[in-house]
Design brief:
The structure is a single chain. The protein is α/β, with parallel strands linked by helices. The chain has four helices and seven strands, in the order H-E-H-E-H-E-H-E-E-E-E. The chain has a seven-stranded parallel sheet, covered by helices on one side. Helix 2 crosses helix 3.
Length: 165
């Protein structure tokens, strides 16, 4: 029965260009955030530090449509290896308005159940402690030739955002 619980829905969202893909993904993120806040009173988010997500994080912080992101009601865990001064964690924590005590490194604290995880399609970047602790996965596939993420490893619903050819 546990095995069947892990085999959840996967949805592939194909976009004609990078801007459209990122727009769809950021809109999905804000929708999950508001749904979580409405039902639970807070939104718990895990974000990968992968370089491939830099443009996504720029959208998240700069797109006028994303100004409604409810940072004050969020907890955010960052994961992945990155030099300290160019970290997405520093950029987002500094500019989002999120309370500093609600920003964590996954490798420095125990992760709670997470409402959403944003990552790339590279399975090697994901900490195993997130596999069964996340409800919604937003996978921003960059088409890189790395260890492909097998959605059956993950609990929750997986949304893959890809660019069409």
């Amino acid at each position: 029965k546990q095995e069947n619980a892990k085999q959840m829905t996967q949805r592939i969202v194909e976009s004609p260009c990078e801007d459209t893909r990122l727009d769809k993904c950021t809109k999905a993120l804000i929708a999950v955030a508001f749904e979580s806040i409405t039902t639970k009173g807070e939104f718990k988010l895990a974000l990968s530090e992968a370089d491939e997500l830099d443009t996504f994080y720029t959208y998240l912080m700069c797109d006028p449509n994303m100004r409604a992101m409810p940072w004050a009601k969020m907890k955010v865990w960052f994961f992945g290896d990155v030099p300290g001064d160019i970290s997405a964690q520093i950029a987002i924590a500094t500019h989002s308005g999120i309370d500093a005590e609600h920003v964590f490194r996954l490798d420095e604290t125990t992760v709670e159940d997470v409402d959403c995880c944003v990552c790339t399609g590279d399975a090697s970047e994901l900490p195993s402690e997130l596999f069964d602790r996340c409800t919604t996965w937003l996978v921003v596939d960059g088409g890189q030739d790395k260890q492909e993420l097998d959605s059956s490893m993950l609990g929750g619903v997986v949304h893959r955002y890809v660019c069409g050819t």
